[in-house]
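Researcher: We plan to redesign the surface later, but first we want a full-length starting point. Tokens attached.
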């Protein structure tokens, strides 16, 4: 046997060692030479041949079996049992004394220790009663060498990689002709220092978790978010959402629902939420808390005037329409929707038809959220002015959509 003696070996220590090399400093990995590999192979094969059991390609226990057989042949097959390597050897094989060694509970370190206490030239006998255990991440033991293909695949958790396998895995997974990785090609990469991370201009180095934290800590965050600056924001409680005066906290979905649910119902004496009446409720004419839809209104009229109403010719339906009733008085109903009237703005609304004699009045209903209310101005037979009047303050007022209903003759 000999230490690796190729020019690529690491010779800094007392004995030459293998090295994986360093691309950045242009140090080559150690080459496993033919003479060294043959030396290792021949030494292993000599032990196997001395055991007299032969060898089989792919068999991971040939060397272990050979050592076991050699020990059995040299020392014997009967005698005292040594279960713990830390206890003294009571038999040494001399004068017919025998040692019976049980390896069932031993790992590789124990076996090396016990063999070191034995004299293989003793005329006595030693029994190796069990094979060594397989090495794991928690237990020393025997291990099978991985092939280069297994090293490249990288999924085997039970075999050991040889220097040749390490080199094969590197060559298969990295393009060593490229000194640094890029945004298009895998390769080696140098880690950035904290100062380089904070500088933020390096495009070739990789950031460590320490660098990421340093970069985050270096960016000052505003204490609170505002209307013109993003930042940290505290969530409003449901009570704060219902109160509606806080300008610094954010409302959650729960708070939004609580604010809506807290709104009063609409009455003749105050604004509020209103539920729409069904056609049947509209026709009954007794509900004092719900609002009529155009469909419900027409349905109620049809129930009141019957066939005469249904056969009337002066009718135009849709989002904007009118109905001129036959009979005494010749009542005319007109309705429509006006969208996007600006805050504090006034729009001129033309009736679908001009009232023959006069318009008695116009009823308005805001159909979008906001603090504004609608006012009727300059009412005539053909049109009227609709003002979207703000409430409280302009900052809480917006453009709105309105539904209107007019009655006249």
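Model: Full-length starting sequence:
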């Amino acid at each position: 046997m000999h230490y690796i003696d190729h020019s690529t070996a690491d010779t800094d220590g007392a004995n030459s060692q293998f090295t994986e090399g360093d691309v950045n400093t242009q140090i080559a990995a150690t080459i496993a030479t033919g003479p060294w590999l043959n030396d290792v192979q021949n030494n292993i094969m000599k032990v196997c041949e001395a055991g007299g059991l032969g060898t089989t390609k792919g068999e991971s226990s040939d060397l272990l079996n050979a050592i076991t057989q050699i020990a059995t042949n040299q020392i014997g097959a009967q005698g005292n049992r040594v279960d713990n390597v830390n206890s003294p050897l009571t038999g040494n094989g001399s004068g017919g004394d025998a040692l019976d060694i049980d390896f069932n509970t031993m790992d590789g370190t124990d076996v090396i220790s016990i063999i070191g206490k034995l004299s293989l030239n003793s005329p006595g006998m030693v029994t190796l009663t069990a094979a060594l255990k397989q090495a794991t991440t928690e237990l020393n033991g025997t291990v099978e060498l991985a092939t280069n293909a297994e090293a490249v695949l990288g999924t085997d958790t039970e075999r050991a990689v040889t220097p040749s396998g390490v080199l094969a895995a590197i060559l298969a997974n990295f393009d060593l002709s490229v000194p640094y990785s890029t945004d298009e090609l895998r390769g080696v990469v140098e880690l950035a220092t904290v100062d380089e991370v904070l500088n933020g201009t390096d495009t070739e180095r990789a950031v460590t978790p320490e660098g990421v934290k340093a970069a985050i800590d270096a960016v000052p965050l505003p204490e609170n978010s505002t209307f013109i600056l993003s930042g940290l924001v505290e969530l409003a409680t449901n009570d704060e959402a219902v109160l509606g005066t806080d300008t610094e906290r954010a409302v959650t979905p729960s708070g939004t629902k609580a604010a809506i649910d807290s709104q009063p119902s609409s009455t003749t004496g105050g604004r509020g939420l209103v539920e729409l009446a069904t056609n049947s409720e509209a026709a009954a004419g007794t509900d004092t808390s719900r609002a009529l839809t155009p469909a419900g209104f027409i349905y109620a009229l049809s129930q009141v005037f019957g066939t005469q109403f249904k056969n009337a010719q002066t009718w135009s339906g849709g989002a904007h329409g009118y109905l001129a009733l036959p009979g005494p008085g010749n009542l005319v109903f007109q309705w429509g929707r006006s969208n996007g009237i600006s805050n504090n703005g006034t729009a001129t609304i033309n009736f679908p038809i001009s009232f023959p004699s006069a318009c008695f009045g116009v009823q308005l209903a805001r159909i979008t959220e906001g603090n504004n209310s609608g006012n009727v101005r300059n009412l005539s037979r053909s049109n009227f002015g609709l003002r979207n009047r703000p409430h409280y303050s302009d900052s809480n007022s917006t453009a709105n959509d309105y539904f209107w209903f007019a009655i006249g003759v």
